[in-house]
């Protein structure tokens, strides 16, 4: 019989909260921890054991998910929990933390807890797809030892792509987000141009719809722009973080559009748009119109 692993979710933000909720719905035993406890409290009636400390949450867990904002935070939390991890547990790093931080975590675990399996598993998909278990998991690491992680991934996603040795998926994640970030910038400028030439965002979509340029992601962002609702699916500051991680990982490759986006989105964050969805870059650009 295929027993469900016990899961600990560290980080109950937009994405981690959705993972924990889906696991609870599917009958998993889930332990959670979040720096700001209030963000996990609504899951307690669904069965979540909400711990005061991260190290408490991982005790006895077969699979540990870290879904934290960045590499520095994930490193800090791993250091807090590493000695409390169950022997032979699987540690899945699922945030977008870049290649250097991923390699450093792997090295840290290999040194301190060689019994623990490290799976590099960032995700493609934003808050709403995460809530509906419709994200895609980019996984890498020792798949032959990751059956329990795969059970967990199946419960929170529409699929998994395995990409090789640990670290490969964090590299691919930067590639995917570079595309997403470029698309968002281009879409914002396209809507501004459309408006200048007398068209609405809806009219633009009516022309794109059904054709090869009609990406569902663009439609979701056009709807945000049309509705003026920039409630974060993905915070602009996290997208800016990813743009920087991609640029750093690119080494000496020239990525001029990405470099310009980093400078522009930094200005937008400084102007107060950081906590809004990345589609608010459109709004920021509108404020710059004469
Ligand atoms: N949202 C998306 O569309 C999306 C999609 C794919 C990947 N990602 C990536 O997934 C990760 C999480 O994203 P999210 O959207 O869930 O972000 P979020 O809602 O901002 O959640 C961030 C999480 O990190 C925790 N955190 C931040 N700084 C911390 C610190 N110093 N110590 C302890 N905990 C800390 C937060 O705790 P508090 O609640 O206490 O602040 C929260 O649990 C990021 O790497 C992001 O780039 C996001």
UniProtKB/TrEMBL annotation:
Pfam families linked: NAD_binding_11 (PF14833), NAD_binding_2 (PF03446)
Keyword terms of this UniProt record: NAD, Oxidoreductase
Entry-linked InterPro entries: 6-PGluconate_DH-like_C_sf (IPR008927), 6PGD_dom2 (IPR013328), 6PGDH_NADP-bd (IPR006115), HIBADH-like_NADP-bd (IPR029154), HIBADH-related (IPR015815), HIBADH-related_NP60_sf (IPR051265), NAD(P)-bd_dom_sf (IPR036291)
Catalytic activity, EC: 1.-.-.-, 1.1.1.31, 1.1.1.44
This protein's name: 3-hydroxyisobutyrate dehydrogenase
Signal peptide: none
6-phosphogluconate dehydrogenase NADP-binding domain boundaries: 7-164
Gene Ontology molecular functions: 3-hydroxyisobutyrate dehydrogenase activity; NAD binding; NADP binding; phosphogluconate dehydrogenase (decarboxylating) activity
Residues at the catalytic site: 173
Domain 3-hydroxyisobutyrate dehydrogenase-like NAD-binding: 167-285
Transmembrane parts of this sequence: none
């Amino acid at each position: 019989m295929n027993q469900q692993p016990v899961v600990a979710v560290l980080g109950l933000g937009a994405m981690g909260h959705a993972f924990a909720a889906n696991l609870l719905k599917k009958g998993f035993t889930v332990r959670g921890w979040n720096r700001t406890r209030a963000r996990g409290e609504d899951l307690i009636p669904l069965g979540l054991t909400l711990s005061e400390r991260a190290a408490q949450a991982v005790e006895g867990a077969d699979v540990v998910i870290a879904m934290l904002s960045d590499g520095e935070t994930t490193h800090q939390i791993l250091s807090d929990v590493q000695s409390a991890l169950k022997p032979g547990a699987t540690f899945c790093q699922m945030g977008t933390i870049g290649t250097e931080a991923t390699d450093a975590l792997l090295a840290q675990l290999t040194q301190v807890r060689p019994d623990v399996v490290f799976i590099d598993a960032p995700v493609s998909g934003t808050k709403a797809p995460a809530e509906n278990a419709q994200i895609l998991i980019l996984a890498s690491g020792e798949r032959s030892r990751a059956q329990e992680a795969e059970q967990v991934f199946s419960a929170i996603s529409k699929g998994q792509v395995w990409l090789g040795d640990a670290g490969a998926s964090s590299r691919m994640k930067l590639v995917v987000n570079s595309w997403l970030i470029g698309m968002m910038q281009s879409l914002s400028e396209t809507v501004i141009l459309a408006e200048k030439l007398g068209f609405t965002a809806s009219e633009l979509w009516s022309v794109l719809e059904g054709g090869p340029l009609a990406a569902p992601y663009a439609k979701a962002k056009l709807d945000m722009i049309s509705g003026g609702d920039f409630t974060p699916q993905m915070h602009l500051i996290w997208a800016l973080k990813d743009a920087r991680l991609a640029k750093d990982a690119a080494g000496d490759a020239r990525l001029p559009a990405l470099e310009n986006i980093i400078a522009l989105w930094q200005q937008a964050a400084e102007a107060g748009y950081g906590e809004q969805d990345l589609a608010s870059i459109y709004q920021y650009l509108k404020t710059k119109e004469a």
